[in-house]
């Protein structure tokens, strides 16, 4: 699957934040229709990279393409609807879970008569129990709320989901079930997922493709099976420390 | 000067004019405040003394400027005086902000210009119907009240919006990430800022006359106006201030929020810290 046409291609991307070189000459291609996991130590630049892909930030240098098109040529709201983002710390919007999903639908200009269907299918894909739909979103557990933000991101009908350590603030069991949800999104819906992860077990299980970053540079990138077996010393050192 | 005393204001006749001696005696009051704060080591003696002197100097200066404007009776002098009042108010409102930029001063000034200008035109031309339209005896005191309140409104609105934007970065980015416009992403923050700017004036509407007699009404009554006529003026004033506060407090957050975003609809990193 690795020769599938890329979702994202990055060329010499550089990002300087408040004088810190968060990304330093990243060239990379992210395959379509599978899960790409970004791994690397804290401060490696995983979040900085993800934020570039739906233009929450712009790089200080370099080129980024999405499905062959320069991302600056795609209207930014369109890009963000096609490329959703799930943050590490989920944010509840006001109202119930249903309100949260409906709000996302109205932002994405989903036709009124399609909203209920879309809420149903997004909630199902994110494994949200029906009985949760009418609960206030700010009174859910961390795992439940993270599912709501995944469903909310699905409301705009994205082709790609960016996820910044979506399970980092959850207990291992909840994290594992959300991991399964993510796996299903990719396998059943053909969604492209780019996900930063601190959990190596999770990364190994989910990743079709993997990228290791360190100090703003790509250490190694490739099909997950190869990457996790790679003998690259920095990668081995990192894996033995976390794994 | 001439016109001021000559214009045959019937209120004038019954008002007791204060002599210089009377003023000197009044200074005894500020001396009591200074003496007390010195004895109790409040640490305000210096400020009190400076404040007392400034009060005298500023008010006397303003008095002469007003006498001059009244005597010359030219529309452009009146308009110039109003604009100076506006500029000082915008400067003050901007200075109260944590991160005053030139753009923010501009936003505050323009919002106050619209909020207080529209209100003054409405009151001057429709309610009071001053003749001539620029009659400084009406425009200057009315605008003084309007701009003072518009200034507080602008400054509260800007301060609150900046606070909301700081506190809600994650929420705003969650909206943006769904493809929401910056306007959509900040709807709630903007609403709260406007609300915060209006609350003091709404509270005044609730308690006016009960908790405190407004300064203008007090002044008119001392000057000999019938309380009922003073009340009519005060009603106009309250409504006019509410309008100015609302317009200003609505415009400031609407314009100010745009400065938190880049053209590509990204949340800017705060300039400091
Ligand atoms: N707003 C900012 N201002 C200054 N430096 C920043 C900012 N955001 C990130 N950085 C720096 O950029 C580098 C990359 O940060 P980034 O958040 O992308 O790392 P990360 O790989 O996501 O780490 P973690 O695993 O801890 O989330 C770090 O050195 C970080 O200190
Ligand atoms: Mg991160």
Furnish the topology, listing elements before pairings.
The complex is a heterodimer of chains A (243) and B (273).
Chain A: E1 6-17, E2 20-31, E3 35-39, H1 46-53, E4 61-66, E5 69-70, H2 76-82, E6 83-86, H3 97-107, H4 112-125, H5 142-155, E7 160-164, H6 172-189, E8 192-196, H7 200-206, E9 209-214, E10 217-223, H8 224-229, H9 233-242
Parallel strand pairs in A: 3-8, 3-9, 6-7, 7-8
Antiparallel strand pairs in A: 1-2, 1-4, 4-5, 9-10
Helix pairs in contact in A: 3-4, 3-5, 4-5
Chain B: H1 2-6, H2 10-14, H3 20-39, H4 45-72, H5 75-95, H6 102-127, H7 136-167, H8 169-177, H9 182-185, H10 187-207, H11 215-222, H12 227-256
Helix pairs in contact in B: 3-4, 5-6, 5-7, 6-7, 6-12, 7-10, 7-12, 10-12, 11-12
The complex binds adenosine-5'-triphosphate (ATP) and magnesium ion (MG).
Magnesium ion (MG) is lined by residues 46-47, 164, 196 of chain A.
- Give me the count of strands of chain B: 0
Give the helix level of chain B as a range of percent: over 70%
Query: Describe the biggest sheet of chain B?
Result: none
Radius of gyration of chain B: 22 Å
Gyration radius over CA of chain A = 18 Å
β-sheet strand percentage of chain B? under 5%
Backbone shape of chain B: globular
Question: Which segments of chain B are poorly predicted (pLDDT under 50) over 5 or more consecutive residues?
Answer: 1-12
Distance between the termini of chain A: 26 Å
Which structural category do the helix and sheet elements of chain B fall into?
Answer: mainly alpha
Helix content of chain A: 25-40%
| Oligomer state of the chains in this structure | heterodimer
Largest sheet of chain A: 6 strands, mixed
Question: Which blocks of ≥5 consecutive residues of chain A have pLDDT under 50?
Answer: none
Largest interface: A-B, 29 and 19 residues
SSE arrangement of chain A, N to C:
EEEHEEHEHHHEHEHEEHH
Distance between the termini of chain B: 54 Å
Taken together, the total number of domains of chain B comes to 2
* Average of pLDDT of chain B: 91
Summing up helix and strand content along with how strands pair, one would put the structural category of chain A as alpha/beta
